[in-house]
Amino acid sequence: MLDIADELARWAEQGRDFAVATVVSVTGSAPRPPGAALAVDRDGTAVGSVSGGCVEGAVYELCRQAVEDGRTVVERFAPSDEDAFAAGLTCGGTIDVLVTPVRGGVYRAALAQAAAGRAAALVRVVDGPPETRGRPLLVRPDGTYEGGLGGRPELDRTAAAEARALLDAGRTGTVTVGAEGARCGRPVTLLVESSVPPPRMIVFGAVDFASALVRVGGFLGYRVTVCDARPVFATASRFPGADEVVVAWPHAYLDATEVDPRTVLCVLTHDPRFDVPLLRRALRLPVAYVGAMGSRRTHEDRVRRLREAGLTDRELDRLHSPIGLDLGARTPEETAVSIAAEIVAVLRGGGGAPLTGARTPIHHDGDTAHGADAGRPGAGRDEDPARDEDPARGGSAARGAAPARDGAVV
């Protein structure tokens, strides 16, 4: 439910009665991941989704019922169930959904925390003693918590420790503990929803392609920063969709800013003065993705310079260059889609190939590759030298370079 916290926090502030259906687990080809939620208030207003349309109607009615009777239920929708087919679940997957009425201060605090962009984890009992089912526990990054699962204090402490581990990893999922807080004893299944600040996308190079990539990055949920050493180009008016526009030498900004294993770095500067010192640092950082724009000839020259700067083969293997998947992109917008597609494929473990005729899974487990262990979608792209043109030609940061003001933020 924390994925729709912005809207639900407003509902809570307005004093609305509502219930939330949250995906607990999925198997097979199910379109929405654990943590996805559908909320319905007493008037029948709905927000969110648990299935992309397959079982929305049935889940909507379960939420309406929970608002009325205050009961928490867990419902399974599977292709083998006649009810599932009646509800419209024809995708072949199985979905377990937890439906809870949202009442009390713990829920409000969790929604407010998530809506404000602060890290938090919400724990609820999915399978356990009846008196514990649906009871909320809010866990913060420092390990403190409020609320309770309705069992023994040891259960709350164990649940908080498990939730903190998932929160640190930015993951949502289920864990099983003993009812007494130990691994033994009657098992209790917990749903842990993690809400963390949005991941960062840092775009180096204030070129036309960057403007399109900023828009796509925001659409994908990234907090997007544009960095360029040239103040005449790095302006907020040129990048209204960016969360931050920084005027600084790219490598200096990367040294000074914070990144984490979810951060993606897109180097569009297309100039060795900027690229080499920047990539020498970027490829040694624990980030999710590093991509650089340029033709194959530019890439070969860039790799040679990076080798001379001391980078190892393992470090260079992390570089996605030329950046993006082979979509035949020409315009800045098409190129941005190409770059975004590669980022999604790398982070989710996809191969970047058409699904038509493929026998690979449609929905991957997600987060299967990061940093140095990331796969390389599109590595087998056409190597015909005739296709050596950079889609960003004409956008080089080397042209008309203006003096930099280190660290200026606009």
Automatic annotation (TrEMBL):
Biased segments, Low complexity type = 393-410
User: What domain of life does the native source organism fall in?
Assistant: Bacteria
Region entry Disordered, spans = 355-410
Task: Name the enzyme's class.
Answer: oxidoreductase
Checking InterPro entries in the record gives: MoCofactor_Util/Proc (IPR052698), XdhC_CoxI (IPR003777), XdhC_Rossmann_dom (IPR027051)
Arranged from A to Z, the UniProt key words for this protein are: Oxidoreductase
Record-level Gene Ontology MF annotations: xanthine dehydrogenase activity
- Any idea of its EC number? 1.17.1.4
The XdhC- CoxI domain, residue ranges:
11-77, 114-178
- Compositionally biased region (Basic and acidic residues): 379-392
Q: Which residues form a coiled coil?
A: none
- Residues covered by the XdhC Rossmann domain: 201-343
Entry-linked PANTHER family: ALDEHYDE OXIDOREDUCTASE MOLYBDENUM COFACTOR ASSEMBLY PROTEIN, MOLYBDENUM COFACTOR INSERTION CHAPERONE PAOD
Name of the featured protein? Putative xanthine dehydrogenase subunit A
The organism named in the record is Streptomyces fradiae ATCC 10745 = DSM 40063
* Chain's gene name: pucA
